[in-house]
Amino acid sequence: MNAAGIDIGSEAHWVCVSAERAVENVRSFGSFTADLYALADWLQECQIETVAMESTGVCWIELFQILKTWGLEVRLVNAHHVKTLPGRESGVLDCQWIQQLHSYGLLSASFRPQDQVCVLRSDEF
Fold this sequence. Notes:
With 125 residues, the protein is an alpha/beta fold. It is built from five helices and five strands. Helix 2 (60-69) links the parallel strand 4 (50-54) and strand 5 (73-77).
């Protein structure tokens, strides 16, 4: 499977890929920029093409942009939709659950405006 699941946290991001892609298929990465690039490198090494990530805050934005820049299909999924399904209790279990649901095609992406609209909505222009 070429799908990954990420549970976004303020201090660490838990990432799961298929056991076919890596011996150690669940890893934790910090939330600093260097950590996010290391995460993207690892996903590329595992030949991941699509990622589903869950976040309840704004910590997902930089990782989302980095992964998109690296050519990955990135889906920000609604935490409420994932939480209504049983089987989650920790960052490790969350990312495994997200990866499994995503690999089965059961997670749809939340609405995200096009990049030009995001720039207009931010203070960066």
